[in-house]
Design a protein that fits this description.
This protein is an alpha/beta fold and 330 residues long. The protein contains 7 helices and 9 strands. The strands form 2 sheets. It has a 7-stranded mixed beta sheet, with helices on both faces. The chain has a two-stranded parallel ribbon with strand order 7-8. Helix 3 (150-169) packs across helix 7 and helix 5 packs across helix 7. The protein is globular and about 50 Å long. Bound molecules: zinc ion.
Amino acid sequence: MSAKTFPHWAFAVLSLVVVFASACQSPSTENAAGSETVQAPTFVEVPGFSGDSAKEYVADQLAFGPRVPGTPAQLRCAEYLQNKLLIWADTVLRQSGKVTAFNGTELPCYNIIGSFNWNASHRIVLASHWDSRPFADQDPDNPTGAILGANDGASGVGVLLEIARNLSQQCPDWGIDIVFFDAEDYGMSQVENSFCLGSQLWAAHPHRENYRADFGVLLDMVGGKDAQFFWEDHSFSWGRQTLDHTWRLASRLGYSKHFIAQRVPPIIDDHYYVYQGTGIPMIDIIQYNGQTGFAPYWHTHDDNLDAVHAETLEAVGNTLLHLLHNPPSL
Ligand SMILES: [Zn+2]
């Protein structure tokens, strides 16, 4: 993702949408409330989110090597993500497309979606990017090699896989869609709209017709040691209620050291394109403080498994799981 603000957004081509599978749960999960407003009546405790489990899913992704679009690792990791979601989600889809990188290279792009309560009208969408950057341009020693992207990519996916595992055991009545965006980190900051290619593709062609979610949450770089998450200003402008509600939940759960309710400057990340393309107010939970920027190992080869801490993953994941069961009004 880029800290620059871009005035308009890029073009990406959809070639195919594949319905990958549909699984175990009954389709009769339609939200009984229909289009009526749903209020969670009391605080729902949902134990079960494990930071250690989320970190195992991070390690699984890293075992494929850098997940760079156009490489065999991309295909292997895409299959891994699909197979994991098939265990837990009601419906799993793979959106396959072509996107054009900043240098003109045409890249295969796979957005992978796992849905719970497909027929519910009220929905929450969760997202993270699963690709890793093809060059370590912040690395002083080897700036050209691809990075593992343990924190920058795999951490958010690891949390969402653990969320999916939990939802398979206890899911609220509303719909939840987990979207893994490809090709987020293949950009150059000098080139407009060259990051977030997978989310641009999805925002132009969501995985189902007339797709709508009440709100969304993006996770990016959510595993750093002692990471702090602030109110990123784009998120504030269109998702203030969700930000406020989420940070209050985090405080209630004892994670105030990670969740700091202070505004920081806006950044361009997948949530920006989701909002611009679909109008869904998606917030970004991201380690970005607006001053020193991202973690010191950002876009270097030190973004490896050592950079990811189960305690931080658990703080984020447990907060998010409680948000899913105790959302602001839908
Ligand atoms: Zn990145």
